[in-house]
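ok trying again, last paste got cut off:
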Amino acid sequence: MDQVRIGEFIAKTRKEKGYTQKELAEKVRLSDKAVSKWERGNSMPDISVMMDLCEVLDLDINEDLNRD
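nice, full thing came through this time. structure:
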């Protein structure tokens, strides 16, 4: 997986939903610093967070996060 591409996708989807990084972080019970790291491509969401993230952003993990 390309961390930068995934991060850009998370940022785009978050903004489309109207959430700030802080709001998204609160919804998945993490810090806004974690969301910032994902969106900059410096890290990836842990698998334990991925299901919550997809639910909050209304994503299908198989279709959306793995697209080329």
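cool. The mean pLDDT is 90. Residues 6 and 65 are 6 Å apart (CA to CA).
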